[in-house]
Amino acid sequence: MPALDGLATYLPSESVPIADLQDGLGLTDTQIKVFRRFYGLSHVLREPEGTGTDLMLAAAGKLDALRGREHLVRYVVQARTMPTVAPYPVNPVHDVRDRLGLRHAEAFALFQHACASGLLAIDLCGRLLEADGDPDALALVLTGEKTFTPAARTVPGTALNGEGASAFLVRQDGDRDRVLGYVTRTHGRFNAFLPLTDDAPAEFQRLYPEALAEVVLGAVEQAGLTLDELDLILPHNVNRVSWIRFCQAVGYPPERVLLDNVPVTGHCFCADPFLNYQSARDLGRLQPGDRYLMVAVGLGATFSAMAFQH
């Protein structure tokens, strides 16, 4: 199974109160109150001048584990939510690869699992590296997108999106942050999520906790654990209420879900679980040997959970 071999994140300096987004997103006063009081949102992060390429380069620039090992990188992968993130012929992942001096590496993007594509990238890179047969080879995975259109700035009635980035290395058979299990499921009948039509929104709300529990419990079981043995969940930062409801449904302590970033970053697309990993490290909430879960849900609707041992 693959493992993470170094991770770095970048958070923009501009913090925008969600009330400042009201006019641009056409939100009512009541909707802003719901986001703030019920969903636990307060601010979102914005990179006022930089591009998506700049976001990824800022994270990669802090990835100390890459220094001196550039020659080992075989793949550079952008895990993203949006199918299109730049006008033709700009290709951000190729630009990042070239500016990092990694022209020898294969570069491509994944977006098929939307905001869960970061976990898909770990699994895919692990498979590619295993097939290549070089135990020292690495893959560099990058996340980070701009909220460049109105549709990219919000998940209606669920989340407000921010800008943040992560960069991390994947290798085979690492000694730390080893993948113990990975479960993903796509409920294809919600493929036209924005906007959902007819009775689909209500049906999706009913499905959500059950579908989330399915992949979480599946990944935990695949890892040979019980839910009680799981030390921490690193979630996607859509809102607090969905996670509180999940914890109530499965009997998991909500204090063991790291929700610290929800009020201050917004939902940063594929970067969320990795931003939360960095926060958990900084806060001392991940100790050697801890078993933890990264969880993400992508529009479409793909539910994914990946279990690790720190």
From TrEMBL:
Pfam families recorded: ACP_syn_III_C
Record GO terms (molecular function): acyltransferase activity
Keywords: Acyltransferase, Transferase
InterPro entries from the UniProt entry: ACP_syn_III_C, Thiolase-like
Domain annotation Beta-ketoacyl-[acyl-carrier-protein] synthase III C-terminal: ranges: 221-309
Lineage top rank: taxon: Bacteria
One GO term (biological process): secondary metabolite biosynthetic process
PANTHER family in the cross-refs: 3-OXOACYL-[ACYL-CARRIER-PROTEIN] SYNTHASE 3, BETA-KETOACYL-[ACYL-CARRIER-PROTEIN] SYNTHASE III
Protein name (database record): 3-oxoacyl-ACP synthase
Originating organism: Actinomadura harenae
